[in-house]
Write a structure and sequence with these properties.
single chain, 290 residues, alpha/beta, Nucleotidyltransferase, domain 5, DNA polymerase, domain 1, 7-stranded mixed beta sheet, 9 helices, 7 strands, extended
Length: 290
């Protein structure tokens, strides 16, 4: 090049001994990663993780049950929240919960986090903490187990929102927030943020919990987006009303499955050849995807 710099070329071998060498290196790396994860998931290391977390956060008791919360939305729309639970340092998927945000409007992650915690923590006692009318579409409250530690995805604003809920409900539960950018930890007991040693058991555990909460929230958010898009497309089809849409979704589940079905299969569900013909023709002409 004219400015004296050299062009960098990266080649990926497709065959021969060089490709074999790369494949071998990739296999060795995968095996090393698996061994490392297996070791970190051993009972002793899991116990070390929650003990390390207790010490670093100065918790009064061992955090045997930890709940981590995450929010997902697109400009405030289809906002969702997740509650991921780790018991004894290990993920407990059967305890996970998801929340469809009720006050779904302007983007407000702090307000959404507050709503989520309020709805979750009020489930510990129906008589002591009655659910407000605007949240009455939740299932009947029951005695969910209280956590030993609450972790919120976010910074100081999310922490303050969470702490205000605990004060309102007169609950004494340690609560912290974890900011993604610098992996800063904010607590209600220390003014300055905390940054864990990235090689520590506690850091590894918190990172896993935060990432799992984010994964769980995103998967639920995508599901709601897909459902809304499917409903929107079906609403555009002339002669296909609400009851017909319900029949289709009940029978096929997704828009992709409806598209893949034959006109005869759709006719069996709808009970009319005319509607089946209209539906198949519309979806065939449409370039939209679910």
């Amino acid at each position: 090049m004219g400015d004296g710099s050299q062009r960098l070329t990266i080649k990926k071998p497709q065959r021969g001994w060089k490709k074999q060498l790369i494949d071998m290196a990739n296999t060795n790396a995968q095996e090393a990663l698996h061994r490392s994860e297996t070791e970190l998931q051993s009972p002793q290391n899991l116990l070390n993780s929650i003990k390390d977390l207790q010490e670093k956060l100065r918790l009064p008791t061992l955090p045997k049950r930890i709940e981590t919360y995450d929010i997902s939305n697109i400009q405030g729309k289809l906002a969702t929240a997740s509650m991921v639970v780790f018991t004894d340092g290990k993920a407990a998927p059967s305890e996970y919960r998801k929340f469809k945000i009720i006050n779904d409007g302007e983007p407000n992650d702090v307000g959404m986090m507050k709503e989520t915690l309020l709805r979750r923590l009020k489930r510990i006692s129906n008589s002591q903490f009655p659910i407000p009318n605007e949240m009455s579409n939740d299932k009947k409250p029951n005695n969910w187990t209280l956590p030993n530690l609450i972790i919120l995805d976010g910074g100081k604003p999310q922490l303050n929102a969470g702490f205000s809920v605990l004060k309102e409900l007169k609950l004494n539960i340690p609560i912290i927030s974890l900011a993604k950018r610098e992996e800063e930890i904010f607590t209600t007991t220390q003014t300055a943020s905390i940054i864990f040693d990235r090689t520590s058991h506690a850091f590894y555990l918190m990172q896993r919990m935060r990432d799992e909460a984010h994964r769980f929230t995103i998967s639920y958010h995508r599901l709601l987006r897909k459902k809304r898009m499917t409903k929107s497309i079906l609403e555009e089809i002339p002669g296909i009303g609400p009851s017909t849409r319900k029949k289709l979704l009940r029978a096929f589940g997704t828009l992709a499955s409806i598209r893949a079905a034959s006109e005869e299969e759709i006719e069996k569900v709808l009970g009319t050849k005319k509607k089946a013909k209209i539906l198949v023709g519309f979806l065939k002409d449409s370039t939209m995807t679910p």
